[in-house]
Amino acid sequence: MAHMASSTPRQLTVGFDLDMTLIDSRPGIHACYTALAEHTGTYIDADLAITRLGPPLEEELINWFPAEQIAAIADQYRGMYPTIAIAATPALPGAREAIAAVRKAGGRAIVVTAKYEPNAKLHLEHLGIEPDAVIGNLWAEQKAAALREHDAGVYVGDHEGDVRAARAADALSVTVATGPYNAAELRALGADVVLDDLTEFPDWLAGYREAPRA
Predict the structure, then answer these.
(1) How far, in Å, CA of 103 to CA of 97, rounded?
(2) pLDDT value at position 212?
(3) Strand, coil or helix: what is 4?
(4) Which of 41, 140, 154, 163 is the most exposed place for a label (fewest CB within 10 A)?
(5) What is the mean pLDDT of the chain?
(6) In 3D, which of 80, 142, 91, 85 has the Cα closest to residue 113?
(7) Is residue 112 within 8 Å of residue 138, measured between CB atoms?
(8) Phi and psi for 156 in degrees, rounded to 5?
(9) Nearest in space to 16 (alpha carbons), one of 158, 126, 123, 118
(10) What pLDDT, on the 0 to 100 scale, is given for residue 15?
(11) What phi and psi, each to the nearest 5 degrees, are found at residue 176?
(12) How far is the C-alpha of 143 from the C-alpha of 132, rounded, in Å?
């Protein structure tokens, strides 16, 4: 109940996006699109595709394949992905420290991503990043359901869709300028907090936790 909030503050739960927030997925995705083009004989501009990361895979594939083929091509891509993309994908600077900062604060860190959930988990396992939960296959406002279910008060992302997700979940929108938008663009999109990258997150979190709240 709302009137109990001051005496029993809810546990800190922070949601994180995956692609271009926790991981630099561009090398692995570029390699996967290149392989997909070779396998299907269909031209895909992988250099262009990796500038548009964030939305679901199908939204990119529709630029290169007929609509009736998208479901099958997406399955093919996701099947190829583990052997091609996982090892090629590094963590972004500060990713591990950001998760650790939430834990150190006694909170829970969850990952909510549009990426196919099994592949999202493979990325995190490969990099030794262990969030409390991983929820995949959700984009933009769809992410709000998972954020609400886990009572996340903060959602950290890099994309317009992540700002929309936080808004829909009544969570604070924290953004990092490591994806397709620079800091000024993220502010213009309505992000509550804009960081250059996740290396700034632990200090931000410390200040956030100390700030008085209504």
Answers:
(1) 10
(2) 75
(3) helix
(4) 41
(5) 95
(6) 142
(7) yes
(8) -105, 125
(9) 158
(10) 98
(11) -120, 140
(12) 16
Q: Is the pTM value of this prediction over 0.90? A: yes
Closest to 27 measured CA to CA, from 101, 106, 90:
90
- Burial profile 151-165: b = 16 or more Cβ within 10 angstroms, e = fewer: ebbbbbbbbbbbbbb
Tokens of 40: 């299907």
Mean pLDDT throughout 199-212?
Answer: 94
Tokens 């996006």 found at: 17
- Give the tokens for residue 114: 């549009």
**CA-to-CA distance for 82 and 18, rounded, in angstroms?**
16
DSSP 90-122: PBPTTHHHHHHHHHHTT-EEEEE-SS-HHHHHH
Sign for the pseudo-dihedral over CA of 39, 40, 45, 51: negative
Please name the amino acid found at residue 180: P
Pick from 202, 140, 189, 188: nearest CA to 166 = 140
Across the chain, the runs of DSSP E, i.e. the strands, are 13-16, 108-112, 133-135, 154-157, 172-176, 193-195
Query: Does the pLDDT value for residue 1 go beyond 50?
Result: no
Q: What is the pLDDT of residue 9?
A: 61
213: amino acid identity, one letter? R
